[in-house]
């Protein structure tokens, strides 16, 4: 008996199954998880979450632009997302005089809401499994190139047909590496207005220092409203537009959550790599992560020094630094997490099991071996490409030099005068940005240019001027910066204005041949892309996608399609598809964890913690005077918990990733209890490997959000629009 139990335990440890709480499930197929979710504590049904015939929770969830999630909280099109998702729109409307980023912004009436051209909110109307139609006519003998063409053709015809006669837009995405395809029919709203955002000291409290960490005290939310035309259809901004009436908006629970309570997250996770081989995992954590971390450390150093110098420079670089630092920090957590779990060895063990199973199956027998060979071919060029994006492309200066080569591109592709003019306009726009406060910016950007290029060269990733010593190469870079037209605003503008769009050939050729920055960027580009290695890497990439499709298909054949879920009485599916920016449900429980020996993290934080972190001398930890006042008088109203504390954030075991920012976090009754905005540092490897002991998503407690809107900002009219459930 003992032996059998031991054997079963070992087997369980080897399986690639979704561990308890791991998984980002497809809403349309949620029936398969329903029993498990209910066993885990959910009171509602899968149909309450996704149903094509009736309004359901999915109608309250939107994709915010192409990278965050939002949720409707009123019947007037009002929705919530994260502060860091709305960030660039808040920055865009901020000036030193009207600094909404620093001071916050609250529309006190509809007229004050700020249009955000270009911003979209996308609602899923319905989804459908279209695998058979997409793959019709494809068999084992079809080449990869032909397969791609057929798939593309079918996708075009299926999507066109699906939206015929409607204002909807359809997309089809591959799942399980192209073993399955789903179509998404969407409604895309294009008049989206900024309604409210707390000051940075709240919306970004803790800044990049606290980012990816628990305990957390960030009031990471902002509010927008969707407007539609008089017929209720999506429309571009117009004064005549009216607030959208969603089919469903979320009820908000003021009851809060306790440790152990069921929660689920409903949103748009972007990318996970759950099924990659040990080779790809090694490439990520042994090559890509460390190189990117080093190069970003350089950029951050220069930007941060500039931001210390003046409020104008702080504003200028705020958004950029937030995004550079975000990946930089996450990758550090990812490397540590994979090391702690011996992730690569774990993968290798599973691969051995797969090979044993596949030994007598010709379709799968060699797939891992072949994948390994292709990774050997691809790895070196992957490294060069990384250097191109993280080093060569690190400075605005090199990006502009690259943009200049587009002028030659237009000529090479027989573009006409109007296309050429359009390219010049684009360039002038980029230059406008570059020359703003050029005295300061050129110093920062030049320092980044020189240091990142030197780093790349030192690591053998730039072959140009190979005879020069490191020191001479640095001197050469300084000379390139000084001599390029890009660093000479007047000359640059004059040169561009003198080019005749009808006959640009000679002038452009001169620019290409004479400008040292253009020369440099072209050399870097050629030594990367116009090499035999690059051509074979492109082939390798195609092969990898074909082989991964086979490997994943094999894994799905190897393991039964169900496993026990929350306990041994209910089952749930084995495999969830990797995230691909489609709507998913993740579920789990509110739960603390033990990050290190002797340390236990409680699952929720309160205003108390904000006061503990307060430091008027450190930008990230300044507490707004008004918030302090409310703290001192303990004026929390109905937003306090049963202990009289004001809850700020909580963590849970939901499996989330980038893109889930802004996602609604719901309770067992499907009511809103929080807004997802981050993961805990110790669990950031969950894109590659999920560990239930460490992986936690971080949410803003909805009560803190409402407290800020109502008590702090005095914008109670917005809370009044919402549907609150107090008991
Ligand atoms: N880490 C979160 C995410 O991946 C929040 C990022 C924004 N916050 C920041 N301090 N940079 O998007
Ligand atoms: N902050 C992330 C986002 O913007 C969510 C955190 C994560 O990666 O899980 O989507």
Q: Can you tell me about this structure?
A:
This protein is an alpha+beta fold and about 725 residues long. The strands form five sheets. Strands 1, 2, 3, 4, 5, 6, 7, 8, 9, 10 and 11 form an eleven-stranded antiparallel sheet that branches. It has a seven-stranded antiparallel sheet with strand order 16-13-21-22-23-20-19. Strand 14 (about 560-565) and strand 15 form a beta hairpin. Bound molecules: arginine and glutamic acid (GLU). The site of arginine has 13 residues, from helix 9, helix 11 and strand 22.
Task: Give a brief outline of the structure.
With 727 residues, the protein is α+β, with helices and mostly antiparallel strands. Helices cover 47% and strands 16% of the residues.
What portion of the residues fall into strands of 2 or more residues?
15-25%
What number is the mean pLDDT?
Answer: 94
* Largest sheet data: 11 strands, antiparallel
CA-to-CA gap between the ends? 50 Å
Bound molecules: arginine, glutamic acid
How many helices? The count is 26
List unreliable stretches of 5+ residues. Answer: 1-17
Calculate Rg over CA atoms: 27 Å
How many beta strands in the DSSP annotation?
A: 24
Tell me, briefly, the overall form: globular
- Proportion in helices: 40-55%
Multimerization status:
single chain
Classification by helices and strands: alpha+beta
Structural descriptors:
727 residues, alpha+beta, 26 helices, 47% helix, globular, binds glutamic acid
